[in-house]
Amino acid sequence: MSRPSLDRRLGPIDAAAIIVSNVIGSGIFLTPAVVAALTGDAIAMVAVWLVGGFIAFAGAMSYAELAALRPHAGGEYVYLRAAFGPIAAFLTGWTSFVAGFSGAVAASAVGFASYLGRFVPSAGDTRVLASLPLGPIAFTVTPQALVAIALIGGLTWIHVRGVGPGRVVQNILAGLKVTGLVALIVFGFSFGDGSWAHFEPVAAAPGIGGFLLALVPVMFSYAGWNAASYVAEEIRHPERFVPRSLAVGTGAVVALYLLLNVLYVYSLPVAELAATRGSVMDHISERLFGPAAGDVMALLAIVSIAASVSAMTIAGPRVYFAMARDRVFFRRAAVIHPVYGTPAAAIVAQALWSAGLVLTGSFDSLFTYTGFAVVLFSGIAGVALFVLRWRRPDEPSPFRAWGYPLMPALFVLASAAIVLNALVRAPRPTAAGLAIILGGLPLYFAFRRRA
């Protein structure tokens, strides 16, 4: 019996749009205040975003070679399976399903409903309409939860209907997001009420310790640069287009992040920026353009979040599809829709789990516990590049990672430092996250026995 495979119908622009949408979410609106507090200096603040961008780009180039060698659906799942075996691969896929993608989709959808509440108050209403307690958890229905689930359901329907409709919607949302951010940058520098005096150095130079600590939230804000690798099986000429999309998508995000942070400091002194609470964008837009700009920023946030949810609805299910194809997930997830040619069951499975997380409100805890796993497994995938090169030195590769071995090694070391920082600074949540990850092992062996 032949293994099911997905058709190659995506181009490099489509894949780059998935990366841009997947990366640019709430992180760039929330973490700059934390980074400003840790660095305490305008130049150091911008520099840490530049260093983080360089590390993300180094990771993207590592993934570009891995994807060119293994142009299949699944991203890290495929690379860890090739380098370290099926158990390591399953654990990254399990984490993606339980929290990595599903938890991020749930959290983003709730954020979408909250921002929409600025224009339609009932959309952000958290009044309890119904509640169903089931043991230690309770399913709670609120207007906000219904709006969040409607977003998840609508994008699921679009992406089940085919790569064509999904690609159009994704590219439109990504285009609107990038256009909005570029417009903000251009108008902010051209007409905004800011000052370049905010970049004058402070009396006390920032310490290297604060700089390294600031790199942690920066790297989490860059998370998602590897999104094109999950759909490598559906990209035409993957040996050329996957590396190109990873380079273009990641490079575009790094450029936007640097310009946005320069704009942030242009708008507010670093000390004032560090004291902001909530979304930095709200404070920046009000300072640059006055109170009326808040509604425009809310619209930009709504589009940005919708684009992120759309990108994760594309990327995540490809992991479960790959797992099911290897018979370490529910077999139905490996079925390709006979009409639309999509992994429809895998897409629906992620949507149902995300909706459950919305109703139980458990996505916050899952995200807190397993957030470090995003960096952990991508760093292990970086190690996989070295392992595969060592095992098969004569295997031809259509693409070689730029700056090998220094750039991939830098990415791996930075990932290890971030994970170790999480273990040291937040041992209990990190230990709980490790327990959730390892909790997938009984399920793995159950699937293996069934296979």
Outline the structure in words.
With 451 residues, this protein is mostly helical. It has 19 helices and 2 strands. The protein has helices spanning 12-23, 27-39, 42-69, 76-84, 86-100, 102-116, 143-160, 163-191, 208-222, 227-230, 238-267, 270-274, 280-289, 293-325, 344-360, 363-391, 406-425, 427-438, 441-450; strands at 130-134, 137-141. Strands 1-2 form a two-stranded antiparallel sheet. α5 (86-100) packs antiparallel against α14 and α6 (102-116) crosses α16. The protein is globular and about 65 Å long. The mean pLDDT is 89.
Features:
451 residues; mainly alpha; Amino acid/polyamine transporter I; two-stranded antiparallel sheet; globular
